[in-house]
Each structure stands twice: as structure tokens, then as C-alpha cells.
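Q: Could you fold this chain for me?
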Amino acid sequence: MGTHANKLRINIMKKIINGKIYNTDTATRIGSHVHSHRGDFQFEDTDLYRTPKGAFFVQGTGGAYSRWSRPCGSNGMTGGHGIQALTAAEALAWCEDSGIDADVITQYFSVEEA
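A: Sure. Below is the predicted structure, expressed as C-alpha cells.
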């Protein structure tokens, strides 16, 4: 899990996806994950949120080879930022893959004892 103290935060972001608004200002941030460093094309700094109505989404920024990349020129890619909606299953998988603490995961997801 990434540290929060040294993170460069994008200001409040809002995006409408399929007629629903995803807003980092009104949603609860569940966890954060930083991959690599800012100079790396694969750099990614992503946060998982849950809206007041229980929908999940990620918001982040990243390099040219990250989920946040965007087209540049005729066939290139550059870094970018944005918001992507997730299903509950995708959000749980994101938490597991990102090393989010088990106690945090169980606050937001139903998981069974092994």
C-alpha cells in the first residue's frame, strides 16, 4: 500500500459514467496503491473509492504504460489521469492485488473465513 504523505494528489475529480456521477469529494477513499516511481512509464498512483450509494471506482494518475495513459500524436501514448467505475468484484480484486489491509477490506466487502 502506498504512503499518503508523499503523494501528489490530483484535486477533486468528478466524472459521469453511464448516467452516474463519481466524485472524489463525496466518496469515501478505501485505499491507495502506488506502483513504481513518477519517471517510469509504468508508474501508477491509484485510489479506490466508494460512493455514498455504494458504487466503487478508482481515480488515479500514471505513466504512458499505465491504465491512465492516453493517446499522443499519431501512434504514441503519454501519461494521464482519470476515473474508472468498478464492480464490487473488481474493487475487491483491486484491494487484494494492491495489498490493502484485511481489516480495511472486511469493512467494505463480504469475505468468508478460509
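A (continued): The two ends are 23 Å apart (CA to CA).
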